[in-house]
Design a protein that fits this description.
The protein is α/β, with parallel strands linked by helices and about 210 residues long. Helices cover about 50% and strands about 15% of the residues.
């Protein structure tokens, strides 16, 4: 086993909670995401146990909310470069060992393509601060919260569009006027983003009058 490693930590975005990016600093990223915090702690403790130096740590957030995508390749290229510069191993937590919802096949496939073999850690529960973090329980609970958050966001978006449509008459600039009103009210789209005239148009085109 090599005496140095690069920790690779990843998570998915949450549109309804306006969580789509991570700070570049891994400590700051861990403050934003409990999943990143868990992976960082798990790798660091493993490294301490085996007397292995952590050369670098990379935190990556994907672009899709429902599954891992190939967008992680750029982060893995960076990780491969750091491993090559320092003769280190890549280390990550293999979540799919216990939860297929958090399956990221690209880590292993891109690692093979780039010519290195990552070290995969089991997603064991650990204590962080005064709280035990169990990935199985966390992901199961989070998936329920995610479904509820998406439903609430969809309900608010639909109600906001219906109210604006009822008050703003047909005519030039109507879509922009509706979008401006919704944004001023703080109402988000079903993807958790600001409204534009175009996505108002698309929604109303597919939404029959009530």
């Amino acid at each position: 086993m090599k005496d140095g490693c690069v920790g690779f930590y990843w998570t998915l975005p949450v549109n309804w909670a306006d969580f789509r990016s991570l700070p570049g600093d891994v400590e700051a990223a861990a403050e934003r995401s409990r999943t990143i915090r868990y992976q960082m702690e798990r790798v660091r403790r493993w490294a301490d146990e085996h007397a292995i130096r952590i050369i670098d740590e990379i935190a990556f957030i994907d672009t899709r909310t429902d599954r891992a995508t190939a967008d992680c390749r750029e982060a893995l290229v960076r990780a491969r470069r750091r491993c090559g510069e320092t003769d280190a191993s890549l280390v990550y937590v293999k979540f799919h060992e216990i939860n297929l919802w958090r399956y990221n096949p690209h880590i292993r496939s891109f690692s093979a393509e780039l010519g290195f073999e990552p070290i995969e850690l089991s997603p064991d529960p650990i204590t962080i601060g005064a709280e035990q973090f169990d990935p199985i329980r966390h992901f199961n609970e989070w998936r329920k919260r995610d479904q509820e958050g998406k439903a609430n966001l969809r309900q608010r978006a639909t109600a906001g569009v219906d109210a604006a449509r009822a008050e703003i008459p047909e005519g030039p600039g109507r879509y922009k006027a509706i979008a401006d009103r919704l944004n001023a009210q703080g109402t988000k789209t079903v993807q958790g983003r600001a409204w534009t005239a175009e996505n108002v148009r698309k929604l109303l085109k597919n939404k029959p009058l009530e």
